[in-house]
Amino acid sequence: MSVSEGLRATITRAKRNDLIFVGLGIAALLFAASTFVALFLDMVGDGMSRLNPGFFTEFASRRAERAGILAAWVGTFAVMIVTALVAVPIGVASGIYLEEYAPKNKMTALIEININNLAGVPSIVYGLLALGLFVHTFGLGASVQTAGLTLALLILPVVIVATREAIRAVPGSIREAAYALGATRWQMVSDHVLPYSMPGILTGVIIGLSRAIGETAPIVTIGAVTFIAFLPPAPVTSSPPFLNFDWLSSPFTAMPIQIFNWTSRPEEAFQANASAAALVLVVMTLLMNAIAIWLRYRLRRNLNW
Fold first, then answer.
1. pTM of the full structure
2. 74-126 pLDDT, tens per residue?
3. Are residues 26 and 122 part of one domain?
4. Domain co-membership, 39 together with 148
5. Are residues 15 and 99 in the same domain?
6. Which residues form the domain of 213?
7. Which of 5, 109, 242, 266 is least surrounded by CB atoms within 10 angstroms?
8. What is the dihedral of CA 22, 23, 28, 32, to 10 degrees?
């Protein structure tokens, strides 16, 4: 066999392997997409009949036809507010420090390894940690603030990693140009690096929050209420100082807890309620991801590298 024939055979074999790999990838994608579509359509078919205004404005009830998700979606929003207020500033600041300020030594490398490992820790571990730390040690109880802090710990590694990756994607020439014009390190970071990395940071933050909104194991572990017929106190009042922080220590429930409660009941009507609540939760998650995509597109369109 000549050299040209051997080269031709190698190219033919490589093309055949590429086609096989592409076929396997398309088959896996179609299988995953068809499975999701089938489950989603089944959920829509079971729960669509329960999606009416009363379903969103009624509390949980022992009668399936009168049960609603008012306490669940209000509790979910309250928990997510605490989660965002804790995880986003700490995560973004940590990512900026590790990428722009931290010295490159063994300690920094150890911290980076642990952050990457924490991103893959099962969520139940964070629930057990919160149960021992926030509930028993700090005495916060099964409250909104405990759930928010627990989910903040859960998504903190995700926010840090997303922030670092977004900052790392900024070209070094932008930093060099800022230094050449006499900018300090903080001016370079705040005026140049952060604006260019903000689309990636926001995308990572919202994806982390969309993961937290559907977590069940951590908030079950800390003792979230499965049946509740009242709302947390309003955070805003009509009298000075116009702010009320009692809602942070209030008992709560959340959408995943409500779904878990209904799916554990044998009655078919409660299964329909669970499907309707799951559909609402899926739509909330998809909306958060859609907002992330829109923000990334909008911010990147305004940047000119």
1. 0.83
2. 888 889 999 999 999 999 999 999 888 888 888 888 888 888 888 788 888 88
3. no
4. no
5. no
6. 52-301
7. 266
8. 100
